[in-house]
Design brief:
Strand 1 (about 1-5) and strand 2 form a beta hairpin. Helix content is about 50%, strand content about 20%. Helix 11 (about 360-375) packs across helix 13. It has helices at about 20-40, 50-80, 140-150, 190-195, 215-220, 225-230, 255-260, 270-305, 310-320, 325-355, 360-375, 390-395, 400-425, 435-440; strands at about 1-5, 10-20, 85-90, 110-115, 130-135, 155, 165-175, 180-185, 205-210, 235-245, 425-430. The chain starts with a strand and ends with a helix.
Length: about 450
Amino acid sequence: MEISIDKHSANQALIKIKLNEADYQPKVDAKLKDYAKKANIKGFRPGKAPVSMVKNIYGTSVLVEEINSILGESLNNYLKEQTFKVLGEPLPVEKEDNSIDWKTQKEFDFDYKIGFVESIKVPLDKKFKATKYSIKVDDKLVEETIENLKSQSGKSTNPEVSEAGDHIYGDLTATEGGFTKTLSLDLSKITKKLAGKFIGISKDAVIEFDSKDVKKAQWKDAFGMSDEEVESAQGTLTFTVKNINRTETAEMNQEFFDKIFGPDVVKSEEEFVAKVKETLQGNYDRESKVFTEEELKKTLTESAKVELPEEFLKEWLIRANEGKVSAEDVEKEFPMYAKQLVWSLISNQLATENKIQAEHEDVIAKTKEMIREQFASSGLGSQMEDSMDMFVDNYLKGEEGQNYMNMLTSVQNDKVLAFVQETVDMKEKEISIDQFKELLEN
């Protein structure tokens, strides 16, 4: 057997395998003798048919089966010996129809495309600069949050006359084109000038205005309309009022405190404000941690300068998911796939170099944390703690064990990122929530 590699680019190659008769014939003969011992062929007692007859019947299929087995094993062993990291799976180069004569041919040549990356180097030293962000919850944000909570928790009424901040329920109609839609208009989310037309009105009032009076984002935010609907709602519009909805602001009392945080968690306005600030800070601490880690991944990826075999990977994705994805799908999703792949390569490299390992106990702990968060968001919380082990076990066994592998990868990534932050120069930077939103938009 001869195996050779032709690296025709920095990250793609062609592997050539040449088999001669001595490589496969002994295994083929042994398999045919085994078949002869078990074969049930008409005219012969079971296991008594001549090997020559068995060969005539099964010879070609056994030959193909054994050659494929030899190719797979030889290719895998050869790739394990290489220093580069193979990506995806080797792709056999398809031969023209009838190019192989399985009946008479003694030597066989096979070619495989591979994509790979050479050794990955991430320079982790004090010259490596990164930023650790922390979001400061200020008094303004706390006050805005409390006002929103009071609005959301207030009682709903249907007054006879509208005021600023009300929701006006009715029919929006375009005078030309026939467009009409019944909707609830949020007066707090349109311009003050346009909102003025809807203040001091009653049921059955008809308000006329022009589509130009509505800013682009307000069509969705205030009117709840899609882009297609907005295109139809152009020119002069009328709004026929059917009802007026108003939410009265909740009072800062024990009933309100209990509704937001649960019975007797806070017992005064001062405790409530402090609890809101504590909750906000906890939420934003998690968000800033995630943002810091994503920015760190980006910096690590840029410093490693991994060059992927894009042409090969796109072909492999199409062939590996035959019938499930199109070339257009792969082209569209490839940037995100490439980003995830590069980070996976970097994470695995750093884990190997620094003996970072995800343990089973870590997987269990992270899964419990995830499930607790899900329960907390649904209001169940501690009620489910007694059944936690069952929930964890069911989740990790899900998707035929893939959930466990995904969680194992997640734990490794967490440990790698923690190691990097301990190793490199992380500059701490405190930012406001507005600054954080600006960073997210960039």
